[in-house]
Give the backbone structure.
Amino acid sequence: MAQEFSSTYGPLPVFEFHSGFWINLHHTLYYEAKQRVTPSTAAPRSNAGPQLKLKTMKDAATVLTPAEKIAWSTAVAYYAENYANKDLLFSTDLMLLKNQLEDFEDCDDLSGTHKKTCDAGLPPNVTRVLDAAAPVYRAHLWSGQDRDNRRWIARVAPLVIEQGVGVSQRLADIYQTKWPTEKIRVDVSAFANSAGAYTTLDPLRVTISSTDPRNQGDEAFEVLFHEASHGIAEPVQEAIIRECRQRGKAIPRDLWPALILYTTGEVIQPLLTTPSDEPKDKQGAGNSGLNRAPGAPRETHMPYTVRESLSQRGWNNYYELLIRFWQPYLDSRSTFDDAIARMVSAL
């Protein structure tokens, strides 16, 4: 049975959004497998909202047929045994599987039974598990998850259209590189990972949760560009490594991701904070922002580095270094090389 509607939203400036059937099935099985293996760590917690609670197949258990229960339970058990102990971001197997499922999102099956070009070339066991679980997922969970994904994209898309090109150019200038010429694929899924989003490279692709409380409202726009920045901020990482080696210092593993978090928030904050004298549209609302009722006042946007306190990641010292040495570079009061050298020197 063909998918009821297209899963591609785009291309928009900078990004191309997808809500693909197979990648959502994949992440749902992974999520349920993690719950089975380590229930206390399967769902992320957020300072900005309640613990993530997704609708799972257990919620639909009373309406599953015996055959559906077997197919789904078998799939979750396979994921629990083979994938639950692996990280979606760092496991090569999971990264390759994710990319394959994204590429075949419009296929009815992955074996090529109905259409030869839909043979995804996955390991036979994986193909059998996913093809068997697909009808159960499609009947009981997919429509709701796809609706959530579409709603999330519809909310973030206007600001991407309005500000996306400018933000991408600003970030590329900061990192002394160029934004990718091709639009970055963003797969929106009910569940992404415990962080709410992750990015894989070669090819550069972002996966982001549409239901995670940390990814809602204006924060969706910030998280989107924070994730994409992992694909363009390599010059910063290389500069930090080079400076550490020249000074005989240990390379700080987390300074680079902390810097990306900080930079994205600083670049985006002015765009999502409405000045008191901002021109109003016909309904009385400002020109920027997401999910605001007509006439509703704009609250000051709080960057991710503040909202999701860096102290929880043990990055307090990095935050202080970034304010002291990286912020002057962002304000054009220092050079890129000087900022990196001063941060490394102060480690």
About this structure: The beta strands are 8-9, 15-18, 184-189, 197-200, 205-209. Residues 142-174 form the longest helix (33 residues).
